Amino acid sequence: MAPPPAALPLPLPLLPALAALLAALPAAPAARAAPRSIAVVGAGLGGSAVSYFLQQHFGPQVQLDVYEAASVGGRLATVTVNKQQYESRGASIHALSLHMQDFVKILGLKHRREVAGKSAIFSGEHFVLEETDWYLLNLFRLWWHYGISFLRLQMWVEEVMEKFMRIYKYQAHGYAFSSLEELLRSLGGEAFVNMTQRSVAESLLEVGVTQRFVDDVIAAVLRSSYGQSVLVPAFAGAMSLAGAQGSTWAVEGGNKLVCSGLLKLTKANVISARVTGISLHSSEGRALYQLHYESTEGQGSAFYDMVVVTTPLHPSRSNFTFENFDPPIADFPGAFHPSVTSVVHGYLNSSYFGFPDPKLFPFTSILTTDTPELFFHAMDNICPVNVSAAFRRKQPQEAAVWRVLSRQPLDKQQLKTLFRSYYSVQVAERQSHPRYDAGRALPPIVLHHNLFYLSAVEWLASSMEMVAVAAKNVALLAYNRWHQELDKIDQKDLMHKVKTEL
User: How far is CA 145 from each of CA 129, 210, 295, 353, 460, rounded to the nearest angstrom?
Assistant: First the structure.
């Protein structure tokens, strides 16, 4: 059998012609270099999560400076009572919070051991609904008091959550949204956008939930989560109700470990300073942002290719200034709702709740209806952030650590109403959540070419997972805009696109 013929060499005269032909072909677009430096304002969950996601997409060579005036963790703060740490707010995470689940896995953290307890809803005079140890009995009581309202509620929340969960598929495929409205449309169409324009009460009554159920149960849940009424927008209400219905968890050692862990993982440079403003400059035809700050060493500034703001920019929360922007960055409308957390170490006054014998008081969590005479929104007997296998919850007659949520600080008479006596009271006054009003316009995510406002998502709904989703969205949006991958931004019919990509 003859060997195959050898490849013939190209005649020398053809080589220059081939080189000229290759030179005439359009060159492949050169990848744009990653930003040299990115500033993140705030080291709470939003700041730490967006730092992690930005590094994931742009690579470890990008300088990440994270500015924080207080402590890492933001609202995921803890207080110390008798040498034990307790969550003051941001205490529970929904089981469907996939980004938070990923963070815990990546950081090698653990879920905190759950300690069972029962809840009840208090009207100011009596308990309108009490949880028992028996699931079927709880269902019977709900049916007896409210008919099938709880089933209608569950169906409504599940439908919203099923559509909301699409965001994880979109983000896994690199899609991002330049506004909260576009994000909502991609998940649930105009129906989701309309959920920001009408109240949760109106939406639930429309699907057959009774007014009594709204007044008793829905009001109690929203007071415990947002400290607000059933007039909050339907989308914010649905996110809160999903957290109340589903199973929840917390991080062993404290939820704030997620923030410190992500910043350590990204090797971000955490700068202890308060950012006062941003001014716009240009360099080599592109935007350059000068970030101004105040620290213990005085005033300073630094230049960045990109800035992500994760702290509120509304006038009631900051005096942040923007200079040299044309058109100017407008003020943000709306206000934040005052919220007070009192961590009390003491003996519960069970008589106030109709239990003269404290040994018979069965509840560890008390929610309240929207009654004018009630001076608190909710209270619960909390466990420390480290729950050992030998840990047991304090009995009702023992001194325990209670977290009381209210709009105003509790005065001595109110503390005396709730507690027979107490050893200590630690008070934290915050404006944690926006004052939700149905119909209010949502803030922008994009403030300038490479200047982003992550905290805009708080006006849609406020929870740890909403912030984590917003952090991923901002990181993808920043990456896609930087590299001009516009086909990954605000795309329509994404469910179909994602299926075809699979």
Answer: 8, 11, 57, 20, 32
